[in-house]
């Protein structure tokens, strides 16, 4: 009867030991898994994308004139992880709203369906301090180009 009570205890104690014994040892460099696509993508992370954002005000009928204006300030704008060739580029147009979020991103110059989707997902996650007109937050249209150069 006591041996039936000990079985679960032995199972709980021996299971982690069995898992550790069966695990691969990746501590030596010759046994580490390697993926060429992962290595290529890591190299892209270290190469900064060339970006030149240009912003223009979105015209509104209720605003008379803007005497003191400030462009939007980037708070979080991570680079998209693109797999485009040396001559490829993606150009995106978007609106920075009064809430600092990106609205209505639109691909102007395409580099392919997969790259376009990656750029759109990344640009939608960007956050800005909104542009101001006479101290009031206002919408601004932005245009940006990503290239692999």
Describe the fold and architecture.
The chain has 149 residues and is an alpha+beta fold. The chain has a domain at 51-149: TonB (TolA/TonB C-terminal domain, 2-Layer Sandwich), CATH 3.30.2420.10. The chain is 30% helix and 29% strand. It contains three helices and nine strands; from the N terminus they run ααβββββαββββ.
Query: What is the mean predicted local confidence, pLDDT?
Result: 75
What's the architecture of the domain at 51-149 in CATH terms? 2-Layer Sandwich
End-to-end distance, in Å? 74 Å
Classify the fold: give the CATH topology of the domain at 51-149. TolA/TonB C-terminal domain
Say which CATH homologous superfamily of the domain at 51-149 is assigned.
TonB
Task: State the low-pLDDT regions, or none.
Answer: 25-32
Strand arrangement, largest sheet?
1-9-4-5
| Quaternary structure type | single chain
- Please state roughly what percent of the residues sit in beta strands, choosing from under 5%, 5-15%, 15-25%, 25-35%, 35-45% or over 45%: 25-35%
Overall helicity:
25-40%
Number of strands: 9
CATH class of the domain at 51-149: Alpha Beta
Q: What pattern of helices and strands is seen along the backbone?
A: HHEEEEEHEEEE
